[in-house]
Amino acid sequence: xxxxxxxxxNVPANYYLQIYGDYCYQFVFFxxxxxxxxxxxxxxxxGTLALAKSSNITYFLENEIVHRYYRHLDVxxxxxxxxxxPVYKWEDGSPxxxxxxxxxxxxxxxxxxxxxxxxxxxxxxxxxxxxCLAISPEELTDFGKxxxxxxxxxxxxxxxxxxxxxxxxxxxxxxESPSTVATLTLACPAFSxxxxxxxxxxxxxxxxxxxxxxxxx
Length: 217
Known about the structure:
single chain; alpha+beta; 3 helices; globular
């Protein structure tokens, strides 16, 4: 059973959503896109393409793709040299420190050309360079890939206040305004369910908007 309550609520909570470390990862295998199309998809849910910044994250992605989902084709991750720069950067703007390039890659081939990076699970998670954009349906067939999105986990509950005199969900009774009210927003309880709803996802309670252990049909 898996808890998805710390993942953004607009991301489908189904078999293809996994939690690792500080992030939720959505494995998108139902369509192939070029790099920009994949990034746009992740951005639409408030995330980005997976940032495989360490050997642990790379291993997690490779292991899930191969051993949980039984896939072996490479997937887009959020790394590129857009503008033809010899320097590759992650989608969040951070520099490249950890690398896992395939030995067959010639990084100089990307200088002066836009190159985007994919992770190859059949090669132990090694990275490959690829053209970023497909300008025709034929190129999308050749260059399009499935991909993994990454989303920041959100807390189970959050506090908000109408006054700056409120700290950590507690109203400061010394604040000048007597009408100051601390508002507590309760999150759904931790969700666990042994059903595998596939791409359909779980139903939600109409009143609380919390997930329930029933599949959409």
